[in-house]
Amino acid sequence: MAAHWLFKSEPSVWSWTDQVAKGDQGEEWDGVRNYQARNFMRAMAVGDLGFFYHSQDQKAVVGIVEVCALAHPDSSTDDPRWDCVDIRAKTALSRPVTLAQIKANPELVDMALVKSPRLSVQPVTPEEWAEVLRMAEA
């Protein structure tokens, strides 16, 4: 079964619209300089799904992406410690799910987005995945 993840991006740097514009080829999720986030990317498989989260002003899950290339050296640095995956946009959520909504939901109190808010790449449990999708449809 595919694993689920969350990828955080500042929309002024890389937005959902930018991600969608890359089409099926996808784009490197580069620039991550946190060992835990890097290790999560190293654990990803092609076909894993992730939430695309706009940080900063919007603070909301806005879409779903798919991992389309396994971890490989990050092209934005010559430092061999840093890897990244490639992701492609799958679908926009029918309704963004805000951080405030996630924090207010008792089903999501243990979500990494709530407990480790600074982590730019993080795992999402199957239960959290289903709950955020339910909230997007509500």
TrEMBL record:
SUPFAM superfamilies: PUA domain-like
Pfam families recorded: EVE (PF01878)
Domain EVE residue range list: 3-135
InterPro entries, per the entry: 5hmC_binding (IPR052181), EVE_domain (IPR002740), PUA-like_sf (IPR015947), THYN1-like_EVE (IPR047197)
Protein name per its UniProtKB record: Predicted RNA-binding protein, contains PUA-like domain
Organism ancestry: Bacteria, Pseudomonadati, Pseudomonadota, Alphaproteobacteria, Rhodobacterales
